[in-house]
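So, does this match?
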Amino acid sequence: MTELQKWASAKYAEIVLCGEVVTFAGTVGSYFFTTDATTNANLTVTSTVSPAGNTQWGPVIPTRELSQWQVEGIKRLNKVLSLPQNWDSYGSRPPTQAAANTAMDLLTSIGIDYFVAPRVVPVSGGGLQLEWESGTRGLELEILDDGSVEYLRTERREPRDEGLVHSINDVRPLFLWLLSSDPIEIAA
């Protein structure tokens, strides 16, 4: 298990399940832990028990505030984070911590309730790419190894435009464009 996978497992894995109390176990370094995630309408907290029996409390993702597509996107992200070194047989490293943090921020901050989960694919050099399609439109967010984000909008699988995403606020207009109605074509 890679260090990034350990971090993601400890921070996000399988706690992104709906329910009142979720218990899971895992390892971080040489430590084994168990965690209970308790959720009510307004708050989600965890208790983590270390090997010495000490209990620590910390926040987790407020799953009740996430849409189903976000939950599925996080699960897909966690699978990609488990890639080993040289996953592409060209010496590429797995996604970096910075790329994973940015992907998680993007997935959890987009306030659209009904949407589809993205394809989550690794990018050579430690990056990630999140991809969505809606009708004839597509949106790709490439998260570079340093956590910076570039976008590509396509229409009918042809590039339309691309650029940098400077903040999370820049992403919402991209999604609104993706979800906006396609022009109506009238057959002759």
